[in-house]
Amino acid sequence: MTASPQPYGRPAPLRRQLILKGLLPMTLVALALTVSLGVLHIRATGVESYAVARIQAVRIAASVSALASEDATRDALARALSRSAPTQQAVLHRQGDTDLVVDSGRRVGSGRPLRVWISTSQGELETVSDATVLHERRFAGMLMTLLLCVGVTAVFVVTRRALERDVVVPVERLRGRIDQFLHPRGTQSATPDDDALRAIDGLLDELVGLRARHDKAMADALRQRLQDIARHTHFVEQIGDHFRQPLQALALFVAGMQPGEDLRQRAVLGQMRSSLMRLNELLDGLLEMARFDAGAIEPTAADLIASDLFVRERAAIEMDATRLGVDVRWRGGRLPLRTDPGLFGEVLHRLVGNAVLSTPHGRVLVAIRRRGSTIRLEVRDNGMGLEPTLQARVFEEFTRLPGHPGYGLALAVARRIVDTLGGRIGVRSSPGRGTLFWVELDGAAAGSAAQTFALLGRHAAH
């Protein structure tokens, strides 16, 4: 039994390649960028809050005058504080005197405040600002950074699972299928710890080598088949020559016999001539089937009009049709065809001849129709018909139809001709109601109306 491939849920080597070399570096870069942006945002928030506090401290310091009294200075600081939110307190540190503290009355947050020192004409001015907003913005920045990192990590996890499901697992399955195809009775060509892509590459190399060996074997088989066909064809030709020569000599000998007035001798001579004729027909049929079976006949397509075939076939069966009183009708003579005239005419001759012999004092309709690019030949008669068991083997060798002379080779040869032309042949019959033989040839329709008129004009000229 074939060793089971590596479990599809644990494709470690390929997974490490995709994650360590592809997905993980991008995830780390995204996390680093996220943290950097968070740190920059927190630092920018602190710098912005400190800059606002310093601007307000400068504005408050500008309200302090060197010549003002303590009350005037207090009032000036109070007015400046009322316009400088969120600065809540100003402390003026005077040299040699107590500090002047002015409070705006706004509630100071519990967090660490922002303190700014500014030099004035009366001393150092210290401003105290509420840092609650700064702390909230910093916390929001940290929370945003954390959420972004969690999102990047979640995307990494989801993408890793998607890669395993949509890339790693199919690749491992493909590797397993190729390996099972190449080694149906052995073990895997690669161990489970090997690189999957490298293993697939090795298996593809094996496939290329297998294809090359297969092509070489097919070429050798084709060459051998062509040699067999040539040898078989030569053998068939030799058999035909060796049989035909004594038959022709015997026919000449029988033709030269003069029975005189003896009626018994006349009957024997007539039987000998009939037997020679049937023996020649049997030999011709067998040789023709042998040539088709050997593939020695190659069809040659040509443009023609159906009436060309109808004229030749009408002349060939006119004597039998007149003798049996059969009325033969022809339809579709103007239809252009592109097929082998000799082979298609032979099929037509065999089907029409079979219908005439099956329908004494009856009617036969021969029609060629077009269905897209397909040509359909139909030969319909109103004769005795065929039993279902006979319809199933009517195209087999030596299947004789009721009332037909010969050895039952005509329809078998017709089927081989149709197979050589790349078409289909069939029969539909009802006992006592007649029989329909049909032939379909794909791509045998000649096509355009201009081509049809050209063929008709050339046919009329001849």
TrEMBL record:
<dbReference type="InterPro" id="IPR004358">
    <property type="entry name" value="Sig_transdc_His_kin-like_C"/>
</dbReference>
<dbReference type="InterPro" id="IPR003661">
    <property type="entry name" value="HisK_dim/P_dom"/>
</dbReference>
<keyword id="KW-1133">Transmembrane helix</keyword>
<keyword id="KW-0902">Two-component regulatory system</keyword>
<dbReference type="InterPro" id="IPR003594">
    <property type="entry name" value="HATPase_dom"/>
</dbReference>
<keyword id="KW-0472">Membrane</keyword>
<feature type="transmembrane region" description="Helical">
    <location>
        <begin position="139"/>
        <end position="158"/>
    </location>
</feature>
<dbReference type="InterPro" id="IPR050351">
    <property type="entry name" value="BphY/WalK/GraS-like"/>
</dbReference>
<keyword id="KW-0808">Transferase</keyword>
<dbReference type="InterPro" id="IPR036097">
    <property type="entry name" value="HisK_dim/P_sf"/>
</dbReference>
<keyword id="KW-0067">ATP-binding</keyword>
<keyword id="KW-0418">Kinase</keyword>
<dbReference type="Pfam" id="PF00512">
    <property type="entry name" value="HisKA"/>
</dbReference>
<protein>
    <recommendedName>
        <fullName>histidine kinase</fullName>
        <ecNumber>2.7.13.3</ecNumber>
    </recommendedName>
</protein>
<feature type="domain" description="Histidine kinase">
    <location>
        <begin position="238"/>
        <end position="445"/>
    </location>
</feature>
<keyword id="KW-0812">Transmembrane</keyword>
<dbReference type="Pfam" id="PF02518">
    <property type="entry name" value="HATPase_c"/>
</dbReference>
<dbReference type="InterPro" id="IPR036890">
    <property type="entry name" value="HATPase_C_sf"/>
</dbReference>
<keyword id="KW-0547">Nucleotide-binding</keyword>
<keyword id="KW-0597">Phosphoprotein</keyword>
<dbReference type="InterPro" id="IPR005467">
    <property type="entry name" value="His_kinase_dom"/>
</dbReference>
<feature type="transmembrane region" description="Helical">
    <location>
        <begin position="18"/>
        <end position="42"/>
    </location>
</feature>
<dbReference type="GO" id="GO:0016301">
    <property type="term" value="F:kinase activity"/>
</dbReference>
